[in-house]
Structure formats: structure tokens, C-alpha cells
Amino acid sequence: QQQVKQSPQSLIVQKGGISIINCAYENTAFDYFPWYQQFPGKGPALLIAIRPDVSEKKEGRFTISFNKSAKQFSLHIMDSQPGDSATYFCAASIKGNQGGKLIFGQGTELSVKP
Amino acid sequence: DAGITQSPRYKITETGRQVTLMCHQTWSHSYMFWYRQDLGHGLRLIYYSAAADITDKGEVPDGYVVSRSKTENFPLTLESATRSQTSVYFCASKVGSDTQYFGPGTRLTVL
Predict the structure, then answer these.
(1) Which of B35, B50, B90 is closest, CB to CB, to A99?
(2) What is the dihedral of CA B55, B41, B43, B65, to 10 degrees?
């Protein structure tokens, strides 16, 4: 119930295309859903986050779509650029539970071809 | 510079040795976390701390010990390293109620 399942494991997209990464969860107590971006040799960095009372959140080229009834959320990267090539992690947490620890998905390695 | 620093960045040790990974943050955030990152598992919580002298176990605490005598430091000790502890270790701290900021990581190899 504490798991977050992420797909696909790897994704290759052409420059200018749309990258879509999906995550699913079981625990309906999760109340915070961030996406992290990680470049090789670096720590994860917060990209964008959403709460379950909102169905969509957009920041620049990055959009989170959230489907509470299906217990799924996804990251869309519009106009994908080679600089977006990185590993992306979805995560979920419950406020007040173990300090708000993050439960991470397995990660998606995105490669954007020029 | 403000932020989270981890040391060492790379460490090679042998089975059975004690190893301490250091984490230092300059923000005075209350919460700090240790995660390990392994291929196919994402990041998993080892230990976390709500404040100085308050620590608690996460998902995968076995074989690890933490302490937090000062707000800014949160060292992680492997008391007797095993090959299964070969991993990349990330320290994080939390501002406000949600956002966690991660350090650059320590790549540990246990031979």
C-alpha cells in the first residue's frame, strides 16, 4: 500500500515532442505528490508538485495531471529538449507521517534526441 | 554557500569496516533524511530526524546508525559494512511542510 509504481522505465523522445511519465499509487492517505528530476552525479531536485485537491498543475513546459479516482498521476513535458534528458522520479507522502517521508517510484530515464 | 553538503562524495571500503557518511545543511531545517538509491528501487528512506536528538527509523534501517547532536549535522554510520550496502546515499532536509532538498550524494562501494 505504500508503493508508488512508475512507468515506463525508460523513454526516448524526439526534440520538440511530448514526454509522458505515469505513476500509480494505492494509499489514499497520500496528500502530496512531487516530481523530482535527477541528472547524473547529482541529487534529485524538485521539479513540480501537486496536491489531490487539484486535477492539474502547470509550470512552464511541465504539467502534472492528477486523477484521484484512478489513483494515478502523470508528468507531461511539452516541447521536450535535449537538456531535459535526465531521470525522473514521482513520489508521494503523507503529511505528518514519519516526517513526511517521500515514497519514490522506480524512476524513468528520459532521453531527448536532437 | 547555503545548501546541503555531503562528504565524502565517493568512498570505497571493505566488508566489516565502519563507515560514516556526513551531511551538513546551512538552512537550519528541522527535518533531515537519509535515503539510499538503488537501481530499480528509486530512493528508500533509511532514517529521518525531526530535530536535534530526535531520530527514527525509515523503511530500510538495518545495519545503519544515525545521530543528530546539532541541527545542521546528520551523520549516517554503517557499523559493519556489507556488500548489500553498496549504494548511492542521499541526505535531504525539509523546508515548510513538504519540500525536501537533496544533497549531491555519496557513492559507497563495499568490497
Answers:
(1) B50
(2) 30
